[in-house]
Please model this.
Amino acid sequence: MTTTNPTNDATALNYIELQYQLRGKTLPADHGYSLYSAIKTTVLNGESLPPEVLLCSVPGIGDRNGTIFLSPRSRLRLRCPAETVQYWYRSLQNTVLDVRGHLVRLIQPRMLLPQPSSTLRSRLVTFKLKDWKTHESPVYFLQSCQRALAALDIDAQPYIDSDATGNLALRALQVRHKNILGYGIGIEGLSDEDSIKLQCLGLGGRKHFGCGWFYPVAEGDRHDDEA
Model:
């Protein structure tokens, strides 16, 4: 398939979100990298996903023992340029993915357009920091967010979200037995144009593994079930 280069110009962005219902029972709670690997192996014959494609981790009901149970709200969600949506629609429809031994079938796809919201959230954003063990790490992380937003020509205010216990939402993603740290992040004060841009382009690294995926705050409960 052909790929395109992401652009900072929101007027040139024409992205579609695909959502698939899942036929299956469970997934690993930390499945971002494994889900990517399953799609890479099953759909792309070992090739990497194009850089402009974003994947979201699948929400579910956690058992606090490393597994989530899929619910009727569980979806696999993918955002891609409109010119490639037919490829992904056909390639993923009715596909069975083996996610570390958990089998799920992708069914009943639907297409949606990203909707603007003045405040967006992401369950996990990652940036490389020299030291995560200092009290200043949240400050350095927010500075990284501000620089990344400026690079996208987005004028908005990032903040670190809190978790269910009221602490900073410090979270981790396991990639090849290595824990990648990041925070749950909110962005407020977005214009409609910048809101769409951020949802299309994401923020930070590991965007193929579910990181940097932003959604309107009203959708928050469906994304945070697996936390």
The chain has two domains: 10-112, 119-224.
